Amino acid sequence: MTTIDHLTLDVTDTTAAGHFYKALGLDDRVRLRASDTPANGFSGFTLSLVVSQPSTVDALVGAALEAGARVVKPAAKSLWGYGGVVEAPDGTLITVASSSKKDTGPATLQIDELVLQLGVEDVAASKKFYVDRGLTVGRSFGRKYVEFETGAVKLTLNKRKVLAKVSGVDPDGDGAHRLHVAGEAGPCTDPDGFAWEQA
Question: How far, in whole angstroms, is CA 161 from its chain's centroid?
Fold first, then answer.
């Protein structure tokens, strides 16, 4: 199985971003690189924190806000569960979600899964690119969605406009992803310009 070891984000303020990702317990899987390029609109990806229950969603959203995030979509129930979207101080969109609509225990800050959701123009072409580099498909729904088995950080492919809409933002952006994926598939650049580095 080809895995993702960690993600590196280009940020203009490493101190603020470092405080934020540490507050969410992500500093082991999300690393930072100083950059002079600020976020300018949708960067084409989101990070998704999958948790066990609604109270944990609320606890993580609260921790994110205390660490400098802003609410993009307030946490609420939906057909698929419970969740919301925040924007990190560096501009990264973060979804916090649970498939459960009811609590089964006390709230925690426990993240069950970190998912890198890439917004791509052609899901089938991007799927082929990653399969050719040894990634194993876990689930696939035609030209709409692909999920890979990539270890500590799960990778999914989504239509860019759909990912932006679900995240509550305009799909337009300056094209700068500000993201480097460290894993066994690198170094390479995918069809949508997402850069991979050797872990």
Answer: 15
Between strands 45-51 and 113-120, the pairing is: antiparallel
Residue carrying structure tokens 């203009």: 12
**Among 195, 199, 155, 150, which residue's Cα sits nearest to residue 175?**
195
3 in a domain, yes or no?
no
> Which structural domain range is residue 126 located in?
8-175
Q: Does 23 reside within a domain?
A: yes
> CATH code at 170?
3.10.180.10
Report the run of H or E that residue 77 belongs to, with start and end.
Answer: strand 70-77
Q: pLDDT 10s per residue in the chain (199 long)?
A: 799 999 999 999 999 999 999 999 999 999 999 999 888 889 999 999 999 999 999 999 999 999 999 999 999 999 889 999 999 999 999 999 999 999 999 999 999 999 999 999 999 999 999 999 999 999 999 899 999 999 999 999 999 999 999 999 998 877 678 999 999 888 999 999 999 999 8
Nearest 5°: phi and psi at 78?
-145, -175
pTM over 0.70: yes
Pair 158, 145: CB distance under 8 Å: yes
Could you tell me if 91 and 13 are in contact, meaning their C-beta atoms sit under 8 angstroms apart?
Answer: no
- Inside any domain, residue 189: no
What is the CA 16 to chain-centroid distance, rounded? 19
Q: Based on the structure, what is the number of domains in the chain?
A: 1
